[in-house]
Amino acid sequence: LANLHLRRRQVSMSSIIDQCVETMGPYVRGRGQHLGVTVQSQAMELDADAARLCQVVKHLIINATRFSAADAEIGVDARRDGIDAVVVVADSGFGIDPQHIGSIFELYSQRHALSSARRGGLGIGLHVARALIEAHGGSLTAASGGLDLGSTFTLRVPCLEFESQASGRLQSGPSSRSLSALTAA
Q: How far apart are CA 4 and CA 179, in angstroms?
């Protein structure tokens, strides 16, 4: 991803999540699954490429649906944690073998070879997702209790006010709004 170019502008994590939910809701419902979304009301303004961040969140949702059964709940939780906007995508699906969790972000890595082969995928998506988040100065991590215990992916991106605070300007205002939606079939 050496040629990665971000088109940064001031954007709210809430608006990014709204865009992702609008796009992914029908996809998730079409698979007979449910998308539970919670967005904290505290301001989460970013200096970010909204399209790239949405690309990452959509990829995490797609993975969650691919590795979960019909009628599964896919959760998306966006909140403020200190200096970061945090988005957690969780499922109760296939899970990740603990011995492989450290390698799932490597290029051409797949969560489980047989399962991935049946569901499609080349093993590059999580590598690209992590690179995009790191290009924003953030992090992308995974956790799982093991096989058949679901997975949780957590992305963190620093909020704009803390980038500006270093130069003495606090730009974030009071919280803008709250979204709590369940898009179910």
A: 31
The distance of Cα 112 from the centroid of its chain, to the nearest Å, equals 20
| 35: its two tokens | 């998308």
Residue 28 reports pLDDT greater than 80: yes
SS3 for 156? Answer: strand
Q: Which two tokens stand for residue 67?
A: 């590795």
Contacts of 130 (CB under 8 A, 6+ apart): 105, 140
Least Cα distance to 132 among 55, 63, 79 occurs for 55
Element spanning 81, H or E: strand 73-81
Q: DSSP string spanning 46-59? A: EEE-HHHHHHHHHH
The structure tokens 């709590």 sit at 180
Other beta carbons less than 10 A from residue 118's beta carbon: 10
Looking at residue 98, its amino acid is P
Beta carbons within 10 angstroms of residue 32's beta carbon: 12
In the structure, what pLDDT confidence band is assigned to residue 44 with cuts at 50, 70 and 90? very high
CA distance from start to end of the chain: 37
**Over the stretch 167-176, which tens digit does the pLDDT of each residue have?**
333 333 333 2
